[in-house]
Amino acid sequence: MCIGPCHKNCNVCHPNQQGREVRYLCHVRLGAFGESICEYRKYIISVRKIILLEEIKLVDYTLIVAYALVALLASFLCSILEAVLLSTTHGHIVGLKETNPKVSRVWMGWKDDPERPLTAILTLNTIAHTIGALGVGAEVETQFEGGNILFIASVILTLAILLLSEILPKTIGALYWRKLTVSSYHILNLLMVTLWVIVKPIEILRSLLPHVETETVTRTELSVLADIAEESDVIEEDEEAVIQNLLKLREMKVSDIMTPRVVLTVANIEETVGEIMKRIPIMIHGRMPVTGSNIDDVSGMVLRSEILRNAAADNFDIKMKELSRTALSCSVDESVDRALDVLLENKEQLLIAKDEFGGTAGIVTMEDIIETLLGVEIVDESDQEAIDDGVLHEDMREYAKIRFDTESE
Protein backbone atom coordinates (compact mmCIF):
# COMPACT_ATOMS: atom_id res chain seq x y z
CA MET A 1 0.00 0.00 0.00
CA CYS A 2 1.31 3.45 -0.92
CA ILE A 3 1.74 5.67 2.19
CA GLY A 4 2.76 8.94 0.58
CA PRO A 5 4.09 10.63 -2.52
CA CYS A 6 7.55 11.25 -1.10
CA HIS A 7 8.05 8.16 1.02
CA LYS A 8 11.32 6.56 0.02
CA ASN A 9 9.96 3.01 0.49
CA CYS A 10 7.11 3.50 -1.97
CA ASN A 11 7.68 1.05 -4.87
CA VAL A 12 5.33 3.04 -7.06
CA CYS A 13 6.76 6.49 -6.62
CA HIS A 14 10.37 5.31 -6.32
CA PRO A 15 10.63 2.06 -8.44
CA ASN A 16 14.29 2.62 -9.40
CA GLN A 17 16.65 5.21 -10.75
CA GLN A 18 15.04 5.01 -14.19
CA GLY A 19 11.58 5.52 -12.67
CA ARG A 20 11.92 9.23 -12.02
CA GLU A 21 9.54 9.97 -14.86
CA VAL A 22 6.97 7.79 -13.13
CA ARG A 23 7.56 9.60 -9.83
CA TYR A 24 7.18 12.92 -11.55
CA LEU A 25 4.00 11.74 -13.22
CA CYS A 26 2.74 10.50 -9.86
CA HIS A 27 3.26 13.91 -8.25
CA VAL A 28 1.55 15.64 -11.15
CA ARG A 29 -1.44 13.34 -10.77
CA LEU A 30 -1.44 14.04 -6.99
CA GLY A 31 -1.60 17.72 -7.58
CA ALA A 32 -4.69 17.23 -9.70
CA PHE A 33 -6.51 14.51 -7.82
CA GLY A 34 -5.38 14.67 -4.22
CA GLU A 35 -3.71 12.18 -1.96
CA SER A 36 -5.18 8.91 -3.31
CA ILE A 37 -1.97 7.74 -4.97
CA CYS A 38 -2.91 4.06 -4.95
CA GLU A 39 -5.86 4.75 -7.24
CA TYR A 40 -3.30 5.25 -10.00
CA ARG A 41 -1.18 2.22 -9.08
CA LYS A 42 -2.09 0.13 -12.15
CA TYR A 43 -1.78 3.05 -14.52
CA ILE A 44 1.65 4.00 -13.21
CA ILE A 45 2.92 0.38 -13.45
CA SER A 46 1.71 0.13 -17.05
CA VAL A 47 3.58 3.32 -17.91
CA ARG A 48 6.68 1.84 -16.33
CA LYS A 49 6.36 -1.31 -18.46
CA ILE A 50 6.07 0.72 -21.64
CA ILE A 51 9.26 2.56 -20.77
CA LEU A 52 11.11 -0.68 -20.02
CA LEU A 53 9.89 -2.41 -23.23
CA GLU A 54 11.13 0.51 -25.28
CA GLU A 55 14.53 0.10 -23.68
CA ILE A 56 14.77 -3.72 -23.90
CA LYS A 57 13.01 -4.22 -27.31
CA LEU A 58 11.95 -7.88 -26.98
CA VAL A 59 12.34 -9.94 -30.24
CA ASP A 60 9.32 -11.74 -31.72
CA TYR A 61 10.41 -14.75 -33.86
CA THR A 62 6.92 -15.81 -34.92
CA LEU A 63 6.82 -14.11 -38.32
CA ILE A 64 10.43 -14.98 -39.10
CA VAL A 65 9.76 -18.68 -38.51
CA ALA A 66 6.45 -18.49 -40.39
CA TYR A 67 7.99 -16.96 -43.52
CA ALA A 68 10.88 -19.44 -43.47
CA LEU A 69 8.57 -22.45 -43.02
CA VAL A 70 6.26 -21.37 -45.86
CA ALA A 71 9.22 -20.99 -48.20
CA LEU A 72 10.83 -24.29 -47.20
CA LEU A 73 7.65 -26.40 -47.27
CA ALA A 74 6.47 -25.05 -50.62
CA SER A 75 9.92 -25.47 -52.13
CA PHE A 76 10.21 -28.98 -50.63
CA LEU A 77 6.96 -29.98 -52.35
CA CYS A 78 8.05 -28.44 -55.67
CA SER A 79 11.38 -30.26 -55.63
CA ILE A 80 9.75 -33.64 -55.00
CA LEU A 81 7.21 -33.06 -57.79
CA GLU A 82 9.95 -32.03 -60.20
CA ALA A 83 12.08 -35.09 -59.37
CA VAL A 84 9.11 -37.44 -59.79
CA LEU A 85 8.10 -35.78 -63.07
CA LEU A 86 11.58 -36.15 -64.55
CA SER A 87 12.27 -39.64 -63.12
CA THR A 88 9.03 -41.40 -64.04
CA THR A 89 9.57 -43.60 -67.10
CA HIS A 90 7.25 -44.28 -70.02
CA GLY A 91 7.33 -47.98 -69.18
CA HIS A 92 6.01 -47.36 -65.67
CA ILE A 93 3.30 -45.06 -67.03
CA VAL A 94 2.16 -47.71 -69.51
CA GLY A 95 2.08 -50.20 -66.64
CA LEU A 96 -0.42 -47.95 -64.80
CA LYS A 97 -3.04 -48.42 -67.53
CA GLU A 98 -4.50 -51.51 -65.88
CA THR A 99 -4.84 -50.03 -62.37
CA ASN A 100 -5.14 -46.28 -63.05
CA PRO A 101 -6.01 -45.64 -66.70
CA LYS A 102 -6.78 -41.94 -66.14
CA VAL A 103 -3.53 -41.35 -64.26
CA SER A 104 -1.62 -43.20 -66.98
CA ARG A 105 -3.21 -41.12 -69.74
CA VAL A 106 -2.49 -37.79 -68.04
CA TRP A 107 1.04 -38.80 -67.12
CA MET A 108 1.73 -39.83 -70.71
CA GLY A 109 0.70 -36.36 -71.83
CA TRP A 110 2.97 -34.78 -69.24
CA LYS A 111 5.95 -36.88 -70.32
CA ASP A 112 5.38 -36.01 -73.98
CA ASP A 113 5.09 -32.31 -73.13
CA PRO A 114 6.42 -31.63 -69.61
CA GLU A 115 6.50 -27.85 -70.01
CA ARG A 116 3.07 -27.20 -68.47
CA PRO A 117 3.60 -29.09 -65.17
CA LEU A 118 7.17 -27.83 -64.98
CA THR A 119 5.95 -24.26 -65.42
CA ALA A 120 3.48 -24.69 -62.55
CA ILE A 121 6.16 -26.23 -60.32
CA LEU A 122 8.75 -23.55 -61.04
CA THR A 123 6.17 -20.79 -60.61
CA LEU A 124 5.20 -21.95 -57.12
CA ASN A 125 8.85 -22.50 -56.25
CA THR A 126 9.79 -18.98 -57.33
CA ILE A 127 6.88 -17.44 -55.43
CA ALA A 128 7.79 -19.37 -52.28
CA HIS A 129 11.45 -18.37 -52.42
CA THR A 130 10.60 -14.74 -53.10
CA ILE A 131 8.06 -14.43 -50.28
CA GLY A 132 10.31 -16.29 -47.88
CA ALA A 133 13.37 -14.18 -48.64
CA LEU A 134 11.51 -10.86 -48.52
CA GLY A 135 9.53 -11.77 -45.41
CA VAL A 136 12.45 -13.09 -43.41
CA GLY A 137 14.65 -10.18 -44.50
CA ALA A 138 12.07 -7.56 -43.54
CA GLU A 139 11.38 -9.13 -40.13
CA VAL A 140 15.06 -9.55 -39.31
CA GLU A 141 15.76 -5.94 -40.24
CA THR A 142 12.85 -4.79 -38.04
CA GLN A 143 13.59 -6.97 -35.01
CA PHE A 144 17.37 -6.71 -34.92
CA GLU A 145 19.90 -3.94 -35.11
CA GLY A 146 23.24 -4.19 -36.84
CA GLY A 147 24.25 -4.70 -40.46
CA ASN A 148 25.65 -8.21 -40.01
CA ILE A 149 22.39 -9.72 -38.77
CA LEU A 150 20.72 -9.51 -42.19
CA PHE A 151 23.73 -11.16 -43.85
CA ILE A 152 23.76 -13.99 -41.31
CA ALA A 153 20.02 -14.55 -41.75
CA SER A 154 20.46 -14.68 -45.54
CA VAL A 155 23.22 -17.30 -45.25
CA ILE A 156 21.14 -19.45 -42.88
CA LEU A 157 18.06 -19.26 -45.11
CA THR A 158 20.12 -20.08 -48.23
CA LEU A 159 21.65 -23.17 -46.60
CA ALA A 160 18.24 -24.29 -45.34
CA ILE A 161 16.72 -23.95 -48.82
CA LEU A 162 19.66 -25.77 -50.42
CA LEU A 163 19.60 -28.72 -48.02
CA LEU A 164 15.95 -29.01 -46.96
CA SER A 165 14.13 -27.92 -50.11
CA GLU A 166 16.51 -28.90 -52.92
CA ILE A 167 18.92 -31.74 -52.18
CA LEU A 168 16.81 -33.77 -49.72
CA PRO A 169 13.42 -33.68 -51.56
CA LYS A 170 14.97 -34.29 -54.99
CA THR A 171 16.82 -37.29 -53.61
CA ILE A 172 13.57 -38.62 -52.15
CA GLY A 173 11.72 -38.04 -55.43
CA ALA A 174 14.43 -39.72 -57.49
CA LEU A 175 14.49 -42.78 -55.20
CA TYR A 176 10.76 -43.26 -54.57
CA TRP A 177 9.19 -41.95 -57.81
CA ARG A 178 7.35 -45.23 -58.40
CA LYS A 179 5.48 -44.89 -55.10
CA LEU A 180 4.87 -41.17 -55.59
CA THR A 181 3.57 -41.26 -59.17
CA VAL A 182 -0.14 -41.43 -58.33
CA SER A 183 -0.05 -38.95 -55.43
CA SER A 184 2.04 -36.54 -57.52
CA TYR A 185 -0.64 -36.71 -60.23
CA HIS A 186 -3.28 -35.34 -57.83
CA ILE A 187 -1.01 -32.61 -56.42
CA LEU A 188 0.17 -31.52 -59.88
CA ASN A 189 -3.40 -31.33 -61.15
CA LEU A 190 -4.41 -29.13 -58.21
CA LEU A 191 -1.30 -27.00 -58.64
CA MET A 192 -1.91 -26.39 -62.35
CA VAL A 193 -5.54 -25.46 -61.72
CA THR A 194 -4.57 -23.08 -58.90
CA LEU A 195 -1.84 -21.38 -60.92
CA TRP A 196 -3.78 -21.44 -64.20
CA VAL A 197 -3.78 -17.63 -64.42
CA ILE A 198 0.02 -17.63 -64.43
CA VAL A 199 0.67 -20.88 -66.32
CA LYS A 200 -1.64 -20.17 -69.26
CA PRO A 201 0.02 -16.90 -70.41
CA ILE A 202 3.42 -18.61 -70.20
CA GLU A 203 2.11 -21.46 -72.39
CA ILE A 204 0.82 -18.95 -74.95
CA LEU A 205 4.18 -17.18 -74.97
CA ARG A 206 6.01 -20.51 -75.35
CA SER A 207 3.83 -21.50 -78.31
CA LEU A 208 5.12 -18.45 -80.19
CA LEU A 209 8.72 -19.64 -79.88
CA PRO A 210 10.28 -22.10 -82.38
CA HIS A 211 9.48 -25.69 -81.42
CA VAL A 212 12.41 -28.11 -81.29
CA GLU A 213 11.82 -31.86 -81.25
CA THR A 214 13.73 -33.64 -78.51
CA GLU A 215 14.41 -37.36 -78.19
CA THR A 216 12.77 -39.09 -75.26
CA VAL A 217 15.81 -41.32 -74.90
CA THR A 218 18.93 -41.65 -77.02
CA ARG A 219 20.67 -44.81 -78.19
CA THR A 220 23.61 -44.00 -75.93
CA GLU A 221 21.26 -43.73 -72.95
CA LEU A 222 19.70 -47.10 -73.83
CA SER A 223 23.14 -48.66 -73.92
CA VAL A 224 24.06 -47.16 -70.56
CA LEU A 225 20.71 -48.22 -69.05
CA ALA A 226 21.27 -51.80 -70.22
CA ASP A 227 24.73 -51.77 -68.65
CA ILE A 228 23.36 -50.39 -65.37
CA ALA A 229 20.52 -52.93 -65.36
CA GLU A 230 23.00 -55.78 -65.81
CA GLU A 231 25.22 -54.49 -63.00
CA SER A 232 22.14 -54.18 -60.76
CA ASP A 233 21.08 -57.78 -61.57
CA VAL A 234 17.87 -56.57 -63.19
CA ILE A 235 18.77 -58.39 -66.43
CA GLU A 236 21.21 -61.20 -67.16
CA GLU A 237 24.61 -60.71 -68.76
CA ASP A 238 23.56 -62.41 -72.02
CA GLU A 239 20.44 -60.24 -72.19
CA GLU A 240 22.57 -57.13 -71.80
CA ALA A 241 24.85 -58.39 -74.58
CA VAL A 242 21.88 -58.84 -76.94
CA ILE A 243 20.69 -55.28 -76.26
CA GLN A 244 24.17 -53.86 -76.85
CA ASN A 245 24.61 -55.85 -80.08
CA LEU A 246 21.16 -54.83 -81.30
CA LEU A 247 22.03 -51.17 -80.85
CA LYS A 248 25.26 -51.70 -82.79
CA LEU A 249 23.60 -53.24 -85.87
CA ARG A 250 23.03 -49.81 -87.40
CA GLU A 251 26.73 -48.94 -87.18
CA MET A 252 28.04 -52.33 -88.35
CA LYS A 253 28.57 -52.98 -92.05
CA VAL A 254 27.81 -56.13 -94.01
CA SER A 255 31.54 -56.51 -94.65
CA ASP A 256 32.04 -56.96 -90.89
CA ILE A 257 29.91 -60.11 -90.66
CA MET A 258 29.79 -61.64 -94.19
CA THR A 259 31.39 -64.92 -95.21
CA PRO A 260 34.20 -63.87 -97.62
CA ARG A 261 34.34 -65.12 -101.21
CA VAL A 262 37.55 -67.12 -100.71
CA VAL A 263 35.76 -69.65 -98.50
CA LEU A 264 32.41 -69.77 -100.30
CA THR A 265 31.01 -73.06 -101.48
CA VAL A 266 29.39 -72.39 -104.86
CA ALA A 267 27.74 -74.37 -107.65
CA ASN A 268 28.31 -73.68 -111.33
CA ILE A 269 25.24 -73.01 -113.40
CA GLU A 270 26.10 -75.92 -115.75
CA GLU A 271 26.83 -78.47 -113.02
CA THR A 272 24.39 -81.33 -112.59
CA VAL A 273 22.98 -82.82 -109.44
CA GLY A 274 25.22 -85.85 -109.87
CA GLU A 275 28.34 -83.72 -110.22
CA ILE A 276 27.47 -81.70 -107.16
CA MET A 277 26.85 -84.85 -105.11
CA LYS A 278 30.20 -86.22 -106.19
CA ARG A 279 32.11 -82.96 -105.54
CA ILE A 280 30.35 -82.13 -102.27
CA PRO A 281 29.29 -85.42 -100.65
CA ILE A 282 28.62 -83.70 -97.33
CA MET A 283 26.61 -80.50 -97.85
CA ILE A 284 26.95 -78.33 -94.79
CA HIS A 285 25.29 -75.20 -96.12
CA GLY A 286 21.56 -74.97 -96.73
CA ARG A 287 22.04 -72.57 -99.66
CA MET A 288 24.77 -72.15 -102.25
CA PRO A 289 25.35 -69.33 -104.72
CA VAL A 290 25.04 -70.38 -108.38
CA THR A 291 27.71 -68.81 -110.60
CA GLY A 292 28.47 -68.53 -114.29
CA SER A 293 31.98 -68.27 -115.69
CA ASN A 294 33.46 -67.01 -112.42
CA ILE A 295 32.48 -66.20 -108.86
CA ASP A 296 31.74 -62.58 -109.72
CA ASP A 297 28.99 -63.80 -112.07
CA VAL A 298 26.40 -64.90 -109.52
CA SER A 299 23.09 -65.71 -111.19
CA GLY A 300 21.19 -66.98 -108.18
CA MET A 301 21.27 -69.62 -105.48
CA VAL A 302 20.24 -73.23 -105.03
CA LEU A 303 18.78 -74.92 -101.97
CA ARG A 304 20.44 -78.00 -100.52
CA SER A 305 17.03 -79.57 -100.09
CA GLU A 306 16.36 -79.27 -103.87
CA ILE A 307 19.63 -81.02 -104.73
CA LEU A 308 19.01 -83.84 -102.24
CA ARG A 309 15.41 -84.26 -103.35
CA ASN A 310 16.43 -84.67 -106.99
CA ALA A 311 19.29 -86.97 -106.03
CA ALA A 312 16.85 -89.15 -104.10
CA ALA A 313 14.63 -89.27 -107.22
CA ASP A 314 17.66 -90.26 -109.37
CA ASN A 315 17.45 -86.99 -111.30
CA PHE A 316 21.22 -86.68 -111.45
CA ASP A 317 21.27 -84.98 -114.87
CA ILE A 318 19.32 -81.88 -113.83
CA LYS A 319 21.52 -78.80 -114.02
CA MET A 320 21.82 -76.12 -111.38
CA LYS A 321 20.36 -73.46 -113.67
CA GLU A 322 17.08 -75.41 -113.56
CA LEU A 323 17.07 -75.47 -109.76
CA SER A 324 18.44 -71.97 -109.28
CA ARG A 325 16.30 -69.23 -107.82
CA THR A 326 16.84 -65.48 -107.64
CA ALA A 327 19.31 -64.25 -105.06
CA LEU A 328 19.10 -60.77 -103.57
CA SER A 329 22.20 -58.63 -103.28
CA CYS A 330 23.43 -55.70 -101.22
CA SER A 331 26.52 -53.53 -100.92
CA VAL A 332 29.33 -54.46 -98.56
CA ASP A 333 28.96 -50.96 -97.10
CA GLU A 334 25.28 -51.53 -96.26
CA SER A 335 24.46 -51.55 -92.56
CA VAL A 336 23.64 -54.88 -90.96
CA ASP A 337 20.42 -53.33 -89.72
CA ARG A 338 19.35 -52.56 -93.29
CA ALA A 339 20.42 -56.01 -94.52
CA LEU A 340 18.20 -57.57 -91.85
CA ASP A 341 15.27 -55.44 -93.00
CA VAL A 342 15.78 -56.59 -96.63
CA LEU A 343 15.83 -60.27 -95.62
CA LEU A 344 12.73 -59.92 -93.46
CA GLU A 345 10.78 -57.93 -96.06
CA ASN A 346 11.53 -60.44 -98.82
CA LYS A 347 11.37 -63.52 -96.57
CA GLU A 348 14.82 -64.60 -97.69
CA GLN A 349 17.79 -66.07 -95.86
CA LEU A 350 20.77 -65.04 -98.00
CA LEU A 351 22.18 -61.89 -99.61
CA ILE A 352 25.04 -61.64 -102.10
CA ALA A 353 27.43 -58.92 -100.87
CA LYS A 354 28.78 -56.83 -103.77
CA ASP A 355 31.88 -54.65 -103.66
CA GLU A 356 32.21 -51.18 -105.16
CA PHE A 357 33.04 -52.64 -108.59
CA GLY A 358 30.04 -54.99 -108.66
CA GLY A 359 32.07 -58.09 -107.91
CA THR A 360 31.14 -60.72 -105.36
CA ALA A 361 32.71 -59.93 -102.00
CA GLY A 362 30.92 -62.67 -100.09
CA ILE A 363 27.53 -63.62 -98.73
CA VAL A 364 25.61 -62.64 -95.62
CA THR A 365 22.85 -64.84 -94.24
CA MET A 366 20.17 -64.51 -91.62
CA GLU A 367 22.26 -66.85 -89.49
CA ASP A 368 25.21 -64.45 -89.66
CA ILE A 369 23.01 -61.60 -88.44
CA ILE A 370 21.51 -63.69 -85.62
CA GLU A 371 25.01 -64.75 -84.55
CA THR A 372 26.05 -61.10 -84.49
CA LEU A 373 22.99 -60.23 -82.44
CA LEU A 374 23.56 -63.00 -79.90
CA GLY A 375 27.32 -62.65 -79.90
CA VAL A 376 27.89 -66.41 -80.32
CA GLU A 377 28.44 -68.86 -83.18
CA ILE A 378 25.37 -70.94 -84.03
CA VAL A 379 26.55 -74.51 -84.62
CA ASP A 380 24.12 -77.40 -85.22
CA GLU A 381 24.82 -81.15 -85.15
CA SER A 382 25.98 -81.41 -88.77
CA ASP A 383 28.16 -78.33 -88.38
CA GLN A 384 29.83 -79.80 -85.29
CA GLU A 385 30.52 -83.10 -87.06
CA ALA A 386 32.05 -81.25 -90.00
CA ILE A 387 34.16 -79.15 -87.64
CA ASP A 388 35.38 -82.28 -85.86
CA ASP A 389 36.22 -83.91 -89.22
CA GLY A 390 38.08 -80.81 -90.41
CA VAL A 391 35.61 -80.20 -93.26
CA LEU A 392 34.25 -76.95 -91.78
CA HIS A 393 35.99 -74.22 -89.83
CA GLU A 394 34.07 -72.89 -86.81
CA ASP A 395 34.63 -69.25 -87.77
CA MET A 396 34.60 -68.93 -91.56
CA ARG A 397 35.64 -65.27 -91.51
CA GLU A 398 38.71 -66.13 -89.46
CA TYR A 399 39.39 -69.09 -91.76
CA ALA A 400 39.13 -66.82 -94.80
CA LYS A 401 41.73 -64.48 -93.33
CA ILE A 402 44.07 -67.40 -92.65
CA ARG A 403 43.64 -68.66 -96.22
CA PHE A 404 44.14 -65.19 -97.68
CA ASP A 405 47.34 -64.70 -95.68
CA THR A 406 48.60 -68.15 -96.68
CA GLU A 407 47.87 -67.63 -100.38
CA SER A 408 49.50 -64.19 -100.26
CA GLU A 409 52.72 -65.70 -98.97
Which structural class should the secondary elements be placed in?
Answer: alpha/beta
Shape call: rod-shaped
- What is the CATH level 1 assignment of the largest domain? Alpha Beta
Low-confidence stretches: 1-37, 52-58
Question: What's the total helix number?
Answer: 19
Estimated share of beta-strand residues: 5-15%
> Strands of the largest sheet, in order across it?
1-7-6-5
Q: Which homologous superfamily in CATH is the superfamily of the largest domain? A: CBS-domain
Q: Could you estimate the helical fraction of the residues in percent?
A: 55-70%
Mean pLDDT: 79
Domains, number: 4
The CATH topology of the largest domain corresponds to: CBS-domain
Any idea what the radius of gyration is? Answer: 44 Å
Query: Total number of β-strand segments?
Result: 7
User: Would you identify the CATH architecture of the largest domain?
Assistant: Roll
Task: List its salient traits.
409 residues; alpha/beta; three-stranded mixed beta sheet; 19 helices; 7 strands; rod-shaped; disordered N terminus
List the helices and strands and how they pair.
Elements: H1 20-33, H2 41-56, H3 62-87, H4 90-95, H5 101-112, H6 115-143, H7 147-175, H8 177-194, H9 196-207, H10 219-231, H11 237-248, H12 254-257, E1 259-260, E2 267-268, H13 273-279, E3 287-291, E4 298-303, H14 304-312, H15 320-323, E5 328-331, H16 336-346, E6 350-354, E7 360-365, H17 366-374, H18 381-389, H19 396-408
